[in-house]
Specification:
By secondary structure, the chain is α+β, with helices and mostly antiparallel strands. 31% of the residues lie in helices and 12% in strands.
């Protein structure tokens, strides 16, 4: 048999094994060269974005395709190192296999605020796709803390705008702790950080990413202690190169425990993240974990699903502080469960035509008295870079000029309205929305 014929008959599995080994070699090359880049997360290699002498060129940033090196802690910080079993469990829950890795967009994502003391000082910046759902879910909890928890002399929107960098960090720490504590059923929170030490070596079947293998887990049985720990290490979530969003995602899964997350999924094979049109996005189960503390794909629409009957107990189906609204012209009949449409506080994560945003009010009693829901104000933050100030909307649930058009399909070409308005009407049917001089967007 000739050499060329032997090449043609080489089993596909051998080719895949060779490719995997080459990939592992590249990962190890990154690891061994890493210590030369630890001084600065933004240092470029010689000849790449530099003046040719190894120094970064002034005013230049990372090319879109590169990912800043991880923000590393000292190995003597404490905590529990991640194991190979934990790493493989994470990979399977998130992607359904051991060879998929986070995209560059996810690896670069962190919790980045707008400038302090500005109209959007409270707001996180978010890209259009990728981890946007996670960023906007945390955004909802940041708004909850700043409007209804933090002690301050300011009122209404001033509570969101009149904040400095430290207060931004405090709000982020509170929001992350709230979400992790809910996932831990009010009894525990696990926080993941990255250390310099590598705890998991590449093995056959597990593809290393030079990040997950460095994770250190810190468990807390008191929410206040967890929140303080997050604030003390807030740069691990809000600095460039921190992998902040992925760290929070890992913390969320470990707070819930990987075993309970799998139980929440009703033993389905569907992962928590999905691939589509070149993007990695959150599934309904992932949204449920962010909003309710349970990764049940049935909780957003209110169905009980095939899980155990205890899943429907009153304690698990009560209203939470943050709600959820959904509108998509292709899924106009899809319903969100009543307890998410009517949360305890007037704050909603919105999925509008596949993009995530936040809708909120400044009156904590809005959803406690139906008479207050006749004419009221809500505020809308899209997360889009084009938005320069919070949009103020006036909602009128007793206006009558909508009634004459009720027989017409609002999604028909002649009657199309902004998708945000359609999402609002899933909560207040027939309401009119006044954008108060702002051009309707989103």
């Amino acid at each position: 048999m000739g050499d060329h014929e032997a090449e043609r008959t080489m089993p596909q599995t051998e080719l895949e094994e060779i490719t995997s080994r080459i990939s592992d070699l590249n990962k190890w090359r990154e690891i061994f060269s890493f210590h030369g880049l630890e001084i600065s997360n933004t240092t470029h290699q010689r000849g790449q974005g530099s003046d040719g002498n190894g120094a970064p060129a002034a005013g230049k940033h990372h090319p879109p395709s590169t990912v800043p090196k991880p923000f590393l802690l000292s190995p003597d910080t404490g905590g529990q190192p991640i194991s190979l079993e934990m790493a493989t469990g994470l990979r399977k829950l998130l992607f359904g296999n051991l060879f998929h890795l986070f995209s560059c967009e996810w690896e670069k994502a962190y919790f980045r605020f707008h400038e302090p003391y500005s109209d959007l000082a409270y707001a996180l910046e978010a890209e259009k796709w990728g981890p946007r759902a996670i960023l906007m879910a945390v955004q909802a909890h940041i708004i909850k803390y700043l409007l209804f928890v933090r002690n301050t002399e300011y009122t209404h929107l001033e509570r969101l705008c009149r904040i400095n960098r430290r207060e931004q960090g405090e709000a982020l720490a509170a929001a992350l702790a709230d979400t992790l504590w809910a996932a831990g059923e009010g009894g525990r929170a696990v926080i993941c950080l990255v250390t310099a030490a590598i705890h998991v070596m590449p093995s056959r079947g597990y593809k290393a990413d030079n990040f997950t293998e460095r994770i250190q887990l810190f468990e807390f049985s008191e929410k206040a202690a967890a929140q303080k720990f997050i604030f003390d290490h807030i740069n691990c979530f809000k600095d460039e190169g921190s992998h902040g969003v992925i760290l929070f995602l890992y913390s969320l899964l470990f707070s819930r425990t990987l075993e309970r997350v799998q139980e929440d999924l009703d033993c389905t094979a569907a992962p928590l993240l999905k691939f589509g049109f070149g993007n990695i996005t959150c599934t309904q189960a992932m949204l449920s974990l962010l909003l309710t503390g349970r990764a049940s794909p049935h909780k957003l629409n209110g169905s009980r699903g095939p899980g155990p009957s205890s899943e429907g107990t009153e304690a698990q189906w009560r209203r939470g502080p943050v709600g959820y609204l959904h509108w998509d012209r292709a899924q106009a009949q899809r319903q969100v469960c009543p307890r998410l449409r009517t949360p305890r506080l007037p704050i909603w994560l919105c999925s509008v035509s596949g993009r995530y945003s936040v809708l909120f009010g400044t009156d904590s009693q809005l959803l406690s008295d139906w008479k207050m829901e006749r004419v009221f104000h809500l505020y809308f933050y899209s997360g889009q870079q084009e938005q320069r100030k919070t949009a103020r909307l006036t909602i009128d649930t007793h206006s009558h000029h909508w009634e004459k058009d009720q027989s017409e399909d609002p999604s028909s070409p002649g009657k199309r309205r902004p998708s945000v308005e359609m999402a609002i009407r899933t909560k207040w049917a027939g309401a009119t929305v006044n954008w108060n001089g702002t051009d309707p967007f989103f």
